[in-house]
Amino acid sequence: MTIDKSKPVMVSGATGYVAGWLVKKLLEEGFTVHAAVRNPDKKEKTQHLDRIASESSGSIKYFKADLMQDGSYAEAMKDCELVFHTASPFISNVDDPQKQLIDPALNGTKNVLEQANQTPSVKRVVLTSSCAAIYTDASECANLPGGQLTEEVWNTTSSLSYQPYYYSKTVAEKEAWKIVSAQDRWDLITINPSFVLGPFLNPGATTSESFNILKQMGDGTFKSGAPKLGVGVVDVRDLADIHFNAGFTPNAEGRHIASGHNTNFYEMAMILNEKFGQDYPLPKKAAPKWLVWLLGPMLDKTLTRRFVSNNVNHEWKADNSKSIQSLNANYRPLQETMHDAFQVLVDSGALDKK
User: Residues 260, 274, 214, 290: is their CA dihedral positive or negative?
Assistant: First the structure.
């Protein structure tokens, strides 16, 4: 599938964390970006993209679009051959998972892809899914062939009551494959990132789940010790490049795990200690599992005992070879990602020194 680079490219959720870096890349490469956002009039949400556009050879146009509103992507998608659907809520502390997570993820995916069906110019959709559509708990890795997650694996263990964010990503991606299989004009590529970290383009918007974890590491929440909670990490800048390559690699197909490093919270904290340990109350040791199991639910309702049992002291492992071979993924060192991400928190004044 070859994309005409003179045509506009649509990005949903364009002001988001991952989408921002993708938009930057597209603008620098000279594209006209159709940025589909909930409220184009909120200048504080778009000014960083306007600044990048003014310094780039590309241009940006904003379109009002809502994940929950049928047909709201029609105008933004008009004349586009390539569509990036990155918009989906990433929050773990929810009161109503159906309303806050499942509905926007599922309906948003249906909305964008049904619009692709109705827009004759569209040739390819690149969907930001997640490793959450592949697994729920790090403990699952050990029982898989080679002890690691691959693109063939699907999440079968999350639900509305357990890890609903993971469930939302699973149902949304499954729906996407169902919709694409019912037609043959456009193709679908999914990118399945692990935990996304790295610097924010919009320093005023450091409210994502990724930054909540970093903030807890730096504000003393984990001072008594960081859990060895197994995760994968991908740098947001590398992830944007992977999305871009997925759009313009003619023979790309299927799912792609985007994860640079198999790690855990304790290892991540130790990397931050190297540079910031003198000034901020970062964890200096690993928290024993029994203690996390005991106190976790009191500190954070998402740290349920089941979650702690299945993720702390379990190795998280994924095979990222498909992204490297098919999409030319180039993963930077974890140290660079951690240091650059934490620096944004420091610069934004979100943390107090010791």
Answer: positive
